[in-house]
């Protein structure tokens, strides 16, 4: 049987591969082509799949391992599989790996994820500052799924007051017209020591209008002169830009996105998140 493998901390150390320079252009009749990249692989290839976002290449080797690379040849990790695996496929972004075993006549689906190191400097924290487990949340105040997750996270924190801290990172999505303004407003509130009050109030908004964010800021008691200056100021804008950049570095494009001690949390149910917290405590994973 294929052993369950979590492709996170168990990944082998990356293999440094120097991609070759693109070759010259070639022509044969009406056909034109040029080699964009070429690099060596550690084993005889059996099958290959590339993610639709062009960020990951999966190569099944004859040594019963799936090698994962970036398109320029940087090895991201190695996943061992059964000897009988003869074909692979992947989900659109490489988040799932599918195996066909010709000997055992089996199909296997494997969840694939990579741990991420996320800079939380300056981000608001809820819970004990020195808690051994850090949950980093990328969220959007106008995102309905983010709002539905909030009670789950509140209960998770209540169940783990000495183990867990929650760090909030902003990722306002372009399709939400007021989301970026809400993020800027909450960062301005953070400068007055009232981020979580603003956070909670913003997630209570059911009808988003151009004036509702400022009305919310006034309702929680912010100094409105300072608030408006901060919202328009460079420091607040730069903090939001940093969170967006951190999301891009962590390969995040949707909200809510969660990481527990760097490990992506795809199942956002309370039991699944509690299990990950417990594993992080017993495993001693880095924050």
Automatic annotation (TrEMBL):
Residues 98-282 form the Thioredoxin domain. It comes from the Bacteria. Gene3D superfamilies: Glutaredoxin. Residues 1-19 form the signal peptide. InterPro entries: Quino_amine_DH_bsu (IPR011044), Thioredoxin-like_fold (IPR012336), Thioredoxin-like_sf (IPR036249), Thioredoxin_domain (IPR013766). Belongs to the thioredoxin family. DsbA subfamily. This is DSBA oxidoreductase.
């Amino acid at each position: 049987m294929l052993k369950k493998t979590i492709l996170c901390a168990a990944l082998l150390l990356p293999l440094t591969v120097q991609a070759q320079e693109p070759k010259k252009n070639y022509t044969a009749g009406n056909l034109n082509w040029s080699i964009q990249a070429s690099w060596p692989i550690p084993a005889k290839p059996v099958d290959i799949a590339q993610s639709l976002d062009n960020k990951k290449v999966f190569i099944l080797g004859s040594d019963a391992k799936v090698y994962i690379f970036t398109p320029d040849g940087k090895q991201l990790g190695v996943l061992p599989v059964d000897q009988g695996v003869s074909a692979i496929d992947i989900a659109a972004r490489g988040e799932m790996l599918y195996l066909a075993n010709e000997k055992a006549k089996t199909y296997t689906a494997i969840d694939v994820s990579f741990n991420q190191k996320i800079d939380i400097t300056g981000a608001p924290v809820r819970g004990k500052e020195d808690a051994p487990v850090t949950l980093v949340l990328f969220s959007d105040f106008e995102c309905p799924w983010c709002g539905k997750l909030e009670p789950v996270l509140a209960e998770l924190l209540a169940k783990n007051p000495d183990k867990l801290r929650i760090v909030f990172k902003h990722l306002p999505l372009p399709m939400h017209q007021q989301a970026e303004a809400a993020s800027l407003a909450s960062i301005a509130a953070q400068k007055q020591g009232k981020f979580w009050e603003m956070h909670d109030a913003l997630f209570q908004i059911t009808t988003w209008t151009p004036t509702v964010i400022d009305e919310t800021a006034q309702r929680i008691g912010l100094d409105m002169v300072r608030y408006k200056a901060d919202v328009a100021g460079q420091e607040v804008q730069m903090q939001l830009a940093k969170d967006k950049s951190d999301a891009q570095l962590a390969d995040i494009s949707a909200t809510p996105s969660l990481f527990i001690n760097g490990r992506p949390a795809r199942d956002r149910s309370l039991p699944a998140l509690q299990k990950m917290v417990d594993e992080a405590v017993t495993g001693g994973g880095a924050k």
